[in-house]
User: Which sequence fits this backbone?
């Protein structure tokens, strides 16, 4: 690298995000120093994105910067936490100033929007572009995974399956047209549901973000809460772009198993549904009931007539959406 | 991978470190939850180690686990912080159960010794083995880089240059004999100077850890404090193993420019030297005065007779230790 790690951090990663009263010392010393607000709990998370694994190697630099923070904010959202600080570890094959500037721009845009400050960083050389972001936020009323109760309704925010189809379109070079554009945008720029989660923190019993696909993440919720989760695939919220771009069975399969949507899956008492939907509308997000929580274990899919649907767990492309 | 990320985390990275009152929820939800002790500031840092860049590709798994935490603890030490929590992001070419178990063992050993709890983690697939650790600690009396004052003495803990020669020996396959063993051990298992830093927090004006080499790190201290740092190379503390294994000029070059020692470089008032050395002895670490802080800028080397020595900044192997 022509520039040292120190110079790269000085040039591209100093002063990113908002100025915060609880930050004493940001980038530039051995560690950052922060002063947590008295009596508040902190939610801590970190996630790594590897080029070619978590994002396409040809993804625009801005979107890599944006998404590396977004996936972490989604974890904070799933805890109904209020974003505060982030640290960044960047491993680069080479230091391309243009790429770094655009990466930093994408990261800064979302950090500003979320009211966070970048307080620390580490840049190192390595063969594969790898981005690790660590975030901290205040979690006063955390929405854990283990609070779902039999009788709850199961809900998701926004629409599902868009990012998975967006990835297929991007990889296939089908990037033209407004539907492709909006699906690819969902892949590159997921919207962490911070405001929604804070609005629902008092109503919901449990939450998880949908990063690995609804079936996988609902299974985590079920396991942690020691309950059964029943999903009605015909209720899954699908975007117009997805409906127009995929067959109905394909769209449902993507919504059940596609990752990267970063919507929230919430469990909340059925009698709170009206209040929850009103709060969601105020937060600018659609909330859809997709099933319910029961005694038992695991995830079950049922048809419109209440019959159990079977599916091949590891054969996502051959997922049968007709009743089994 | 035969095991999912979820299963790997459950099996290898649950319950690592000590149990702490300020940890509400560790590995297993969307985020960890902690309850920072009231009124205490937090020091936050993260560092990435890439196989083949920051450690040899054939380094034993235990030492990779140990060192990935040690380099972060060294940053906490440089702030005189008290270790509390860590998060781990691991990128693996494949999930080798034996490797993971030994890696986790090395990490756990140091986490226990430091009184830390592992509260969160992320495991992903990628071509290059990459380990990012993020640490948090309580920093009540932080030792910043910007506090060095003209008139201070400049000090280092322990001995310098060992890890750099250890790396040469490891790479050259010269791993036999007690000197090689102890130098390589210094490379693989650096000792973060947590106890020393806490003991000196009230006496010292500034500190930095020596990770990139003394010259580079002293330059950071000088820049941040807006002072000149004068180093007397003949005062540099060298281990017996280094003296026996390298020529005198080579040993001095390694001590000035070799990275990975993770000792502390401290600036403290000369009249506190006796007290500081006594506290260091109690902490089991040798403290050596290697120079002084003056008005001006940059780093200057002087001979035993006070003459300025010249050196080729980027030609470490050709570093002239005789007076210039």
Assistant:
């Amino acid at each position: 690298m022509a520039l040292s790690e120190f110079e790269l951090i000085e040039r591209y990663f100093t002063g990113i995000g908002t100025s915060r009263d609880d930050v004493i010392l940001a980038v530039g010393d051995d560690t950052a120093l922060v002063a947590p607000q008295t009596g508040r709990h902190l939610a801590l998370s970190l996630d790594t994105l590897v080029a070619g694994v978590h994002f396409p190697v040809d993804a625009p630099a801005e979107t890599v910067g944006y998404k590396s923070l977004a996936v972490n904010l989604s974890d904070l959202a799933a805890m109904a936490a209020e974003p505060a600080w982030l640290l960044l570890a960047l491993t680069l094959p080479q230091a391309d100033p243009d790429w770094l500037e655009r990466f930093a721009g994408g990261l800064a845009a979302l950090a500003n929007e979320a009211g966070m400050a970048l307080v620390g960083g580490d840049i190192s050389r390595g063969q594969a572009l790898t981005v690790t972001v660590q975030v901290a936020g205040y979690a006063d009323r955390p929405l854990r995974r283990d609070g779902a109760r039999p009788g709850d309704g199961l809900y998701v925010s926004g629409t599902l399956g868009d990012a998975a189809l967006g990835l297929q379109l991007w990889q296939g070079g089908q990037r033209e047209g407004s539907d492709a554009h909006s699906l690819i945008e969902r892949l590159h720029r997921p919207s962490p549901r911070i405001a929604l989660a804070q609005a629902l923190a008092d109503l919901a019993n449990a939450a998880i973000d949908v990063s690995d696909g609804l079936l996988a993440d609902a299974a985590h919720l079920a396991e942690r809460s020691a309950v059964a989760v029943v999903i009605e695939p015909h209720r899954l919220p699908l975007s117009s772009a997805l409906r127009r771009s995929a067959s109905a069975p394909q769209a449902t399969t993507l919504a059940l198993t596609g990752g990267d949507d970063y919507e929230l899956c919430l469990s909340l008492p059925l009698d709170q549904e009206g209040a929850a939907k009103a709060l969601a509308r105020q937060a600018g997000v659609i909330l859809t009931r997709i099933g319910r929580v029961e005694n038992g274990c695991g995830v079950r899919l049922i048809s419109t007539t209440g019959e159990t649907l079977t599916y091949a767990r590891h054969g996502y492309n051959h997922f049968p959406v007709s009743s089994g």
About this structure: Residues 104 and 125 of chain B are 17 Å apart (CA to CA). DSSP finds ten helices and 13 strands in chain B. The longest helix of chain B spans residues 61-78. Confidence is low (pLDDT under 50) at residues 314-324 of chain B.
